[in-house]
Write a structure and sequence with these properties.
In chain A, about 25% of the residues lie in helices and about 30% in strands. Chain A is α/β, with parallel strands linked by helices. The longest helix of chain A has 16 residues. Chains A and B meet through helix 11, helix 12 and strand 26 of A and helix 11, helix 12 and strand 26 of B.
Chain lengths: ~525, ~525
């Protein structure tokens, strides 16, 4: 047993049970005064397994009860350098359990596990060399444009009438699936596992809620002890033709309640965001192209915000799959320079319909190496970025009382002018105001007083005034996000600092305390 | 006297009057059963002038009364080919009085008339070779960043205490100003004349309302008979430190009431749009970067929508003055492909602070020749573009009743899905919904069933499905808006048509009936 690594007990019990998959088998693990009960699962051929994730080192005793009765003890070694525990949401960023920072750089291969072995192998090889440390992928196969192939196997066996039987997991599927998950997480890539999705011709999206629970129960017993998995309740929950909002809420509650470890949990939207303020939700997982709204969302939900779909690099005939590599890279920078996290996807038309975004294979695009460049910079920061305060966004959202409170810090001759602007903004319709503020958004974030990042996006400034703390010694770098160059343009500056810029799109400015 | 050209009567009257500028002199012009009374103005050195704009040919008699009494008659010849009358708003587009289409392609030289003669000459020369047929410029001088120079003269004489006296126009100013206006309009460029603006150190923005009326009275008597002028009440009305919303409304009412001809009239905002539904307002003159909202605004105000400020091509340190040429061009295409009209401006840093946007001089940018290319295409269309109906925008704005009414035209198996989408959109907060819809906006407009335009913007489609009328014969052109190329890619197609595209940004597709 080693801290942060899945510990597994095996038992063979050949006696027949009514339904081996809903078996009554659990173990109590005790370490000092801490006890945790985890349930086991049937793995076929008479084998029952119980998996446990130890999160601190020390002497453990375990006691199995139910259809098997047994007990034992194990010494749990402290974690090795490769294992940091589960990723947790801390304030508006992510950390591993041991405190190591985790900055997600995601991609999507939604139907990865539903492709033939050769393609899966190719995908894993590509992932091994790619800059991504998070992947969104589905338990169930995908029926959609460019996704019409049958998977090698399914999560459940079929009933006599040909319908899938949620109460009989297909062991062959789960072994294969688990192997893929394990190989991905072993590469340091977190799996944002999509539990339901609406692109379905097999009936997995149309199961009764009771069957949804049976499926989730098995999945949680089987997978919850794996530290590298996040629960994504859905891709585009609001496109499911069969589940009501209340159904989704119950699913959320079921997963949270039956997960012994508290994995990250989110729910991905098409239109209306899942309510990220709900207690079980650890972070926002948003489909959106409206990146200017990120600071507001971070402020509202007070949790990490993942932009889990902002269109994909590619040339599909759909707006969601036809970003240039440049625009994909710019969207990453906009997102990170707003204090949030971004997910990549790639959708180049292909004669054989092997499109990375859903099936994997090889990456053809120009964005991944620029995302690697961004990742390197983000990992060099002294801490997590949070969006810059102030500006027109704040002003627009203030009550008159709040505004007057803040006014004391404004120069006296500007106060009437600020009140006048606020009055004009206040007269705007909400839709006009939202659009207006979005149009004037500045992409700016900072790490306390330690580091300041501006992504200048399409603005071709010939010069720029940085407002740095008066008492620091800052080094200022000019970053060309497409050309992937970093140039130190100022050393040892502080306070209001005017820098000269070459007047082109796609530049970022990073000021870091020396 | 000639139709659509200013007719002028001169009288010399050396007797002293209390205030020659507020003189009582007017003329009644009669043509058949139509009578129009126009007031005259003092032009200095004892000269009083009355200007009249005849709008139809025929025999006119005129009778002057007030401090001068005189009468006479003139035959008004029909217009020559160079004169089309005033520009009028018709539905959501513009036409000259004689029915000739006018498609505005604007630029700004706000303080054009407040520069020294040599610079004014250079600006007029530049305008003569530029693609612009509308210019926004101010009556009053400008005090702002890069605008600190004193003008050669001012609209008013000064009082003994050094303050400007609205009741004593400076004839030298008005003669010079008028000459500039006349030379610009003679080049076929409409002058969108800005009557007030807040960038002021001389007090022109801080006059009492009574003085505002005295100034407007003189201006209207002097300039209203010139057909090439539009009244822009303000640039950024809501940044005036001295005028309340009610003051502005009164100014609007005063101008509309005292203009005998009904020139185009608008009011330009910084934040909250001027209420374009007001009766005196002929069209929207918007500062906005939120071009995705254009179809909604057109639908709401049912008048032409001019995007009179969407940032400028340049490299200033401000977000509003640092667009790349490409982005300026793209914003023009987005605007036109939404059924609206767009205004250019150029703001390159310059050692002598001569920045085109406010002072004129020469154009340095790369957008004007691409705007010329767009203008050529727009002028080749069989009529005015209106934004495409339908799509998610419409759905989001429908009441449940409207939605059910439209549902009958939808395939039966899609209706529940559409209802579900509408429900999710309906649950969104207004700000989230606005941002969402903006993020998925398609730039598409059409001229009836005759022509269809899509601007694909950043979308790098490898193919695209056009939904053309079933019964037409369409020629499809692929337009590269930056490279300025037009390539016929389909001939004689109709109905659903799939076209192959090269997967790059900045392409437009134009399908026109052959």
């Amino acid at each position: 047993m080693r801290q942060y690594e899945t510990f597994e007990l095996h038992f063979t019990e050949n006696e027949n049970h009514e339904n081996a998959f809903e078996c009554n088998i659990s173990a109590e693990f005790t370490c000092g005064e801490e006890k945790k009960v985890v349930r086991g699962f049937y793995d076929g051929e008479g084998v029952y397994k119980i998996r446990f994730l130890p999160r601190k080192p020390g002497e453990y005793t375990w006691k199995v009860s139910g259809i098997v009765n047994a007990e034992g003890h194990e010494y749990c070694d402290p974690a090795d350098e490769a294992h940091h525990g589960m990723v947790k949401a801390v304030d508006t960023h992510f950390e591993f359990e041991d405190g190591t920072r985790f900055i997600p750089f995601g991609t999507t291969v939604y139907a990865l596990a539903h492709q033939e072995d050769a393609l899966v192998e190719e995908t894993l090889k590509t992932l091994g060399a790619a800059p991504f440390n998070k992947i969104r992928m589905c338990v169930f196969p995908k029926d959609y444009l460019y996704n019409k192939n049958e998977p090698p196997c399914y999560a459940f066996e079929k009933k006599a009438d040909g319908a899938f039987d949620a109460s009989r997991p297909c062991i062959q599927f789960w072994l294969r699936f688990e192997n893929i998950l394990d190989r991905i997480t072993a590469m340091g890539i977190q799996v944002d596992l999509i539990l339901f999705h609406p692109y379905d011709r097999w009936g997995f999206d149309a199961m009764q809620q009771a069957d949804n629970y049976i499926y989730l129960d098995y999945l949680l017993r089987r997978l919850a002890a794996k530290p590298g998995i996040w629960w994504s309740l859905a891709n585009e929950y609001d496109l499911s033709r069969t589940k009501s909002l209340r159904d989704w809420e119950e699913i959320e509650e079921y997963v949270a309640k039956n997960d012994p470890y508290g994995h990250l949990l989110s729910c991905h939207n098409c239109f209306c965001h899942w309510d990220t303020k709900r207690e079980n939700v650890t972070h926002a997982s948003l489909q959106t192209k409206s990146l200017t709204e990120i600071p507001r969302w971070i402020k509202e939900c007070k949790k990490p915000v993942m932009i889990d779909e902002c269109c994909y690099e590619g040339n599909l005939p759909q707006f969601w799959g036809s970003l240039s590599a440049r625009e994909m890279v710019f969207r990453f920078w906009r997102t990170f320079a707003s204090g949030a996290y971004c997910t990549h996807g790639e959708t180049y038309l292909s004669d054989d319909d092997v499109v990375w975004w859903a099936k994997g294979g090889v990456l053809k695009g120009e964005s991944p190496r620029r995302i690697a460049f961004l990742r390197e910079i983000m990992e060099s920061l002294p801490g997590p970025l949070v969006p810059a305060d102030g500006g027109i966004v704040e002003l627009a959202q203030m009550s008159p009382e709040e505004m007057e409170k803040g006014m004391a810090q404004q120069p006296e001759d500007l106060r009437d002018f600020i009140r006048m602007i606020a009055a004009s903004i206040g007269r705007m319709r909400v839709d006009d105001r939202t659009a207006h503020i979005g149009g004037e958004h500045e992409w700016a974030a900072h790490v306390g007083e330690e580091a300041f990042l501006w992504f200048n996006d399409l603005m071709c400034f010939g010069e720029q005034t940085l407002r740095l703390p008066e008492d620091g010694h800052f080094r200022v770098e000019l970053i060309d996000v497409w050309e992937m160059t970093r140039t130190v343009i100022e050393e040892d500056v502080s306070g209001e600092t005017i820098i000269r810029l070459p007047g082109k799109e796609g530049l970022a400015v990073l000021a870091m305390k020396m």
